């Protein structure tokens, strides 16, 4: 029987200090496995010696593949590029800063052999700043209550994907990628392995506080239209309240006469129109939202198994 191929996908951006060490640690874990392997480095437009390090490795070792992007497109895009060009029967996605311990590869591969399509290495938050821990707990509570996909803290990109999972991910070709949501969206069987948080080996994290906030917003926006709906409902509430207010004040005026002239008419028209405007914005929002979803061109479904071929119109 032909040996299966395992692809390791590593997006790197300014990681010159870590490439060689990463390679050595990977080899240590990969060579005892009953798999052929390829290591795919994606240089995400690094401005330091990262690419040179990779090229030097690729020259010496056949198992090293690489893609170099024309500029820094971000980790999500780099991963996508990598997934498109690997040939493995399964792939493991890892960071290039040794925060994802290669020692877990053995366990992940075992999960794959047991038949799981996704084997996720879930990291604990030990060593993270208290405040960041608190924010992430709150964030995930909120996201899970308003979006349609399940996201879990600590379950990031460090995971093994079967060929089927890889192909499913490749079908989601939207340009604004929120991969945590995508892994959850495709479904398929999943096994979780836990590990202790590790701090970066060298270089610097590319996440600033602002990046994290943006990432958080992406997480909410790319998986539902509920924020738009908030507008719609607020409009209804304001409209309802303004009608109640107008009714009561009108009754007062009829029974007790006008207090301050002009006040009633001004306030009631502002409230009433405000309500109507918010509702209209909500309606427009719904349409924009639909268009937004369509432009992503996500497939409407993914087939698990079927005994019928796709029907071609004659
Ligand atoms: N990375 C990338 N492109 C980017 C930013 C990061 O390919 O624009 C890579 C980076 O080299 C590393 C991984 O993505 O291998 C994770 O990045 P980082 O360590 O900065 O994130 P953190 O671990 O702090 O979440
Ligand atoms: Mg890191």
What does this structure look like?
Residues 7-169 form the Glycosyltransferase 2-like domain. GO terms for molecular function: glycosyltransferase activity. The chain crosses the membrane at residues 230-251, 263-288. By secondary structure, the protein is an alpha/beta fold. The chain folds into 2 domains: 5-208 and 298-306, Spore Coat Polysaccharide Biosynthesis Protein SpsA, Chain A, CATH 3.90.550.10; 226-296. It has 10 helices and 7 strands. The protein has a 7-stranded mixed sheet, sandwiched between helices. Helix 2 links the parallel strand 2 (36-43) and strand 3 (64-68). The longest helix is centred in the last third of the chain and has 33 residues, at 263-295. The structure holds uridine-5'-diphosphate and magnesium ion. Uridine-5'-diphosphate (UDP) is lined by residues 11-13, 15, 44, 72, 74-75, 78, 95-97, 99, 205-207.
Distance between the termini: 40 Å
Count of all domains: 2
Order of helices and strands: EHEHEHEHEHEHHEHHH
* CATH domain fold name of the largest domain: Spore Coat Polysaccharide Biosynthesis Protein SpsA, Chain A
Uncertain segments: none
Strand residue percentage: 5-15%
What small ligands are held by the chains? uridine-5'-diphosphate, magnesium ion
Care to count the β-strands? 7
Tell me roughly what share of residues is in helical segments. 40-55%
Determine the number of helices (DSSP H or I, runs of at least 4 residues).
10
Average pLDDT metric: 83
CATH first level of the largest domain:
Alpha Beta
Rg over alpha carbons: 26 Å
Strand order of the largest sheet: 3-2-1-4-6-5-7
Quick one: biggest sheet? Answer: 7 strands, mixed
Keywords: Glycosyltransferase, Membrane, Transferase, Transmembrane, Transmembrane helix
Protein name: Glycosyltransferase family 2 protein
Domain Glycosyltransferase 2-like: 7-169
Pfam families: Glycos_transf_2
């Amino acid at each position: 029987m032909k040996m299966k191929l395992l692809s390791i996908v590593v997006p790197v951006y300014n990681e010159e200090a870590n490439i060689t060490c990463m390679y050595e640690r990977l080899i240590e874990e990969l060579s005892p496995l009953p798999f052929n392997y390829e290591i795919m480095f994606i240089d995400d437009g690094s401005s330091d010696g990262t690419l040179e390090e990779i090229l030097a490795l690729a020259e010496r070792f056949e198992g090293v593949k690489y893609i170099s992007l024309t500029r820094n497109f971000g980790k999500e895009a780099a991963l996508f590029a990598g997934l498109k060009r690997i040939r493995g029967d399964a792939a493991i996605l890892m960071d290039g800063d040794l925060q994802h311990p290669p020692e877990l590869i053995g366990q992940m591969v075992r999960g794959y052999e047991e038949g799981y399509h996704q084997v996720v290495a879930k990291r604990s938050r030990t060593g993270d700043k208290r405040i960041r821990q608190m924010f992430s707990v709150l964030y995930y509570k909120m996201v899970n209550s308003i979006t349609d996909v399940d996201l879990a803290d600590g379950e990031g990109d460090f995971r093994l994907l079967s060929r089927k999972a890889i192909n499913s991910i490749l079908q989601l070709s939207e340009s604004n990628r929120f991969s945590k949501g995508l892994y959850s969206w495709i479904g398929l069987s999943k096994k979780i392995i836990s590990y202790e948080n590790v701090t970066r080996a060298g270089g610097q994290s590319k996440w600033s506080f602002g990046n994290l906030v943006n990432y958080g917003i992406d997480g909410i926006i790319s998986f539902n239209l509920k924020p738009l709906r908030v507008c719609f409902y607020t409009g209804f509430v304001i409209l309802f309240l303004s009608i109640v207010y107008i009714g009561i004040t009108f009754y007062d005026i009829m029974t007790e006469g006008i207090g301050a002239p002009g006040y009633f008419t001004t306030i009631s028209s502002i409230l009433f129109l405000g309500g109507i405007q918010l509702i209209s914005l909500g309606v427009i929002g719904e349409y924009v939202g639909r268009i937004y979803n369509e432009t992503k061109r996500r497939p409407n479904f993914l087939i698990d198994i079927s005994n019928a071929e796709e029907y071609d119109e004659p």
